[in-house]
Design a protein that fits this description.
Chain lengths: 152, 719
């Protein structure tokens, strides 16, 4: 039996999972939202979209530090040993106009059904620049990946 | 792998893949019936297109936005429009497109022209008939055009009619799929439909026929000759003939109505020999298929061809006439052109005439008996116009869609509503009415001497303001009655003068230039586009204006009722009790049942608050403000500049408020409800179709209205 390397598990989760749980901070209190995301191929950036009237948008304008949990659980007992979950930590900033078209295309290639949502002028596209990932497998086995160390 | 399946190879076990219509045609051709040759494009291809383009998920998302049973016809139109536009703008998966084009070129593109028709599994079984709910395309030439026609036909699986029908039959829309028939086009001289069992008499067959192609008969553009035959021996029992003046024939690239030769005008497209042949083939088909059928046929150079065959269904379980009324809202361009003339020449002037006759009566001078009779007769007049409204004014709205479908197909715009900007041409009456009110208000603002009489509830007897008020009331009726007694003009002018003291009045939005649109079209498309645009503009303006006309009649009824109530309150005229009874009140009869919102959880431990609500995007833009929820009996004067108007439905008596509003939220849904139309005129964000809007949002809540996406976000203000 061959095990994929831990970093491959992270990349697999980023490619395979359409949704993640975004954690933002609201006046010092944690606030979570389910978001559709897409990852850049080097896993350094994660993208998600939100309309500007949402709480998460307000939270992000006050504090750009975020976490995004991505996992493959099926909400069954087997998850305790079989599921993998990765948390990305980083800073989320709204994508600026110069890169917007290209990144929107990247996002839509993954989520074509969200075309009207992402194209609406009231929707903001965010980029999370990831500082590090923490991967949990086999219930308690945790590995950290610091992005400055995993290049080459 | 081969996608296109020739009729000669279509097997009986392919029902799930090919649909009933394709199989019947293939089977009949194999059995030697005169069916033009064709190919089937199976359901697999539809599913592959959906999966690769992301459409499957998009459709699922559209269908779960709101409980289908709660949607009004305007909302179902919108859902259908959005899904159709996604079909039109979705990219073909390159590999699929390449193979399909190759196969089309080697197969049907060898013929001069083809018809592209739907054949959905489950449709046209003996129990269900989707006849006329799905689109077909005729006279399609070339592989590329065939491919485009295929997606138009696929998209029609999601037509509003088909959506309603599946709902009625309890079929799951997500389970539906469509195959397509690409059939050699036979351009006949005479065409028609044969019912082997007449709809109203099982002992008869019925034949309908027109000159030219069948499409004009099927969509109701042309009246057919109609003959009834005895099922026993084929003898002609009854002939119903009409005057024929035109026929649908191929011209340049598409079908077009052309005048008939004088000789054909005098002749019936039917004759005894043709009827005998139809009778013979009808009996034969009944035997082959073991059911009675309706048959679309055409005759080319004395040869009869069978184009389509459907089992005759027994019809749907009776559930009131609502569904057939809804499906009847679809009109062809020529029938809309006739309807427009009728509305402009008869209906609207009729309403104006009746309103003027009412206004001419000096109510105070009538004795009690005469006044009671006046109330009853005015209510009857209003009832008549409300019936006409439903029968004629609402169907006119279809002109907007007809143009929208054309626009979206030609322009392939990502925004399915982009075409709406082309429709705003002449100002709507409601906008014109507001404009005049704002002009009067600015006069009041600049002349402080006018305030004193206005504060006493009076318009000065002479001067510029009086002249404006007189011409205003002559054109729009008495504003007090239009606003159902909730508003008097002097108070409203003072309010407008004060509200707009610090801010300029809203500007109406300019429309889109039609030259830009027309420049995208070929010469041949342009002529049709101009006709469609003309009708769409007329139907857009009428959609709102007819309310102003109806409002004038209503104002005549209200003024008589008010006078009667006044006398009744004095206690000296029991005669008014019967006249004023609710049972005879047409407005009450027509009042829409308002669905109650789900009861909010509100027990001691849990307090339920709506935070974000999803409706339909109905006017682009985003704005925030304090909500002002309009309940019955609401005083219009409470409404403040910059508030967000939240209501069940924008009535003609509320359009006064719109220039003051930052945004509009309406329970009724769709692009074509009045709130949405007025909001667009002013460029105000608008979201419609929020179930329970007036219960879930409270006056004073700060709301953000996202008119691009149809989302309302609420910040509840703690009490």
């Amino acid at each position: 039996m061959t095990n994929p390397s831990s970093w491959d598990i992270v990349l697999d989760l980023l490619q395979a999972q359409p949704l993640g749980v975004l954690g933002t901070s609201r006046e010092g209190h944690a606030y979570t939202s389910l978001v559709a995301f897409v990852a850049s191929t080097d896993a350094r950036s994660l993208y998600f979209a939100t309309t500007r009237a949402t709480r998460k948008y307000h939270n992000l304008t006050a504090d750009e530090r975020v976490a995004l949990l991505i996992d493959n659980r099926s909400n069954r007992t087997q998850d305790f040993y079989g599921a993998a979950a990765v948390s990305a930590y980083g800073r989320a900033l709204e994508v600026d106009a110069t890169a917007h078209a290209e990144l929107q295309a990247l996002y839509l290639a993954r989520h074509p059904q969200l075309k009207s949502f992402v194209s609406a002028p009231s929707t903001a596209l965010f980029r999370i620049t990831v500082d590090n990932y923490q991967l949990v497998v086999r219930f308690q086995h945790v590995t950290e990946f610091r992005m400055t160390e995993c290049t080459t | 792998m081969h996608y296109l399946i020739p009729f000669s190879e279509a097997q009986q076990d392919g029902q799930d893949q090919l649909g009933g219509k394709a199989l019947v045609l293939a089977r009949l051709r194999q059995a030697g019936y005169p069916v033009p040759d064709g190919f089937c494009l199976p359901v697999t291809v539809y599913r592959a297109f959906l999966a690769h383009s992301g459409l499957a998920d998009f459709i699922a998302m559209e269908l779960q936005r709101k409980d289908f049973a709660e949607m009004r016809w305007e909302e179902i139109w919108d859902v259908s429009l959005r899904i159709r536009n996604h079909f039109l703008t979705a990219a073909w998966p390159p590999a699929l497109k390449k193979v399909l084009l190759e196969e089309l070129r080697q197969g049907p593109a060898q013929w001069d022209a083809v018809a592209v028709r739907s054949t959905a599994p489950g449709e046209d079984s003996a129990r269900q008939s989707f006849a006329g709910l799905h689109e077909s395309r005729i006279l399609v030439r070339g592989a590329e055009a065939m491919l485009e026609a295929v997606r138009v036909v696929w998209a029609s699986l999601w037509s509003d009619g088909a959506l309603l029908y599946r709902q009625e039959l309890g079929l799951d829309p997500a389970e539906s799929a469509m195959a397509v028939v690409v059939q050699q086009m036979v351009i006949g001289d005479v065409s028609g439909i044969l019912f082997t069992k007449a709809p109203h008499d099982a002992k008869r067959m019925m034949v309908e026929a027109v000159w030219g192609l069948n499409q004009a008969l099927v969509d109701g553009t042309l009246e057919p000759d109609r003959w009834q035959l005895d099922r026993a021996d084929g003898s002609v029992l009854e002939k119903h003939s009409v005057v024929h003046s035109s026929a649908l024939r191929p011209k340049d690239r598409g079908p077009e109505l052309v005048p008939l030769s004088p000789e054909q005008c005098r002749q019936s497209p039917l004759g005894p020999a043709l009827c005998a042949e139809l009778f013979r083939i009808g009996r034969q088909l009944e035997e082959t298929l073991a059911t009675s059928v309706d048959i679309e046929w055409t005759v080319l150079e004395q040869r009869l061809f069978i184009l389509q065959v459907r089992p005759i269904t027994t019809g749907l379980p009776a559930r009131g006439d609502e569904r057939s009324w809804l499906l009847g809202l679809h009109r062809s361009l020529p029938s809309l052109e006739r309807l427009r003339v009728d509305l402009e020449e008869n209906v609207l002037p009729g309403m104006t005439g009746d309103a003027a006759a009412m206004a001419a009566v000096e109510l105070a001078s009538l004795d009690d008996t005469a006044l009671a009779a006046e109330v009853v007769s005015r209510r009857a007049v209003l009832q008549k116009w409300l019936d006409t409204y439903r029968e004629k004014c609402i169907p006119m709205a279809h002109g907007i869609r007809l143009f929208g479908e054309f626009y979206n197909e030609v322009m392939r715009s990502d925004d399915p509503y982009a075409f709406m900007d082309l429709l705003r041409c002449d100002p709507l009456l409601a906008v014109e009415r507001n404009r005049q009110l704002l002009t009067m208000a600015s006069l009041v603002r600049s002349d402080p001497a006018l305030r004193t009489p206005l504060q006493r509830g009076q318009i000065p007897a002479e001067g510029a303001l009086r002249a404006m008020v007189d011409s205003f009331q002559e054109r729009f009726g008495d504003v007090q009655w239009i606003a159902a007694g909730a508003l008097d003009l002097p108070a409203w002018l003072l309010k407008l003068a004060d509200e707009f003291a610090s801010k300029s009045a809203p500007r109406e939005q300019p429309g889109m230039a039609e030259e830009l649109f027309l420049s995208h079209l070929s010469e041949q498309e342009r002529a049709l586009a101009v006709r469609l645009l003309t009708i769409a503009r007329a139907s857009y303006a009428l959609r709102d204006n007819d309310n102003i006309y109806l409002g004038k009649v209503r104002s005549g009824v209200l003024s008589a009722e008010q006078e009667a109530r006044r006398r009744l309150a004095r206690g000296d005229a029991e005669i008014f009790r019967a006249a004023l009874s609710a049972a005879s009140d047409p407005s009450a009869l027509f009042a829409e049942k308002k669905p109650a919102a789900a009861a909010p959880v509100d027990v001691a431990a849990v307090r339920q608050l709506a935070r974000q609500l999803v409706g339909q995007p109905a006017g682009p833009g985003v704005d925030s403000g304090k909500a002002r929820v309009l309940h019955d009996g609401f005083d219009l004067r409470d409404f403040r500049l910059g508030e967000v108007l939240v209501c069940d439905a924008i009535e003609p008596n509320m359009t006064f408020l719109v220039p003051l509003a930052a945004a509009i939220i309406e329970r009724r849904g769709g692009m074509l409800v009045h709130g949405a139309i007025i909001a667009r005129e002013y460029g105000i964000p608008c979201v419609t179709g929020i179930a329970g809007a007036t219960q879930l949002i409270h006056t004073g809540d700060v709301v953000t209205v996202d008119g691009y996406l149809g989302i309302v976000t609420i910040d509840h203000q703690e009490e």
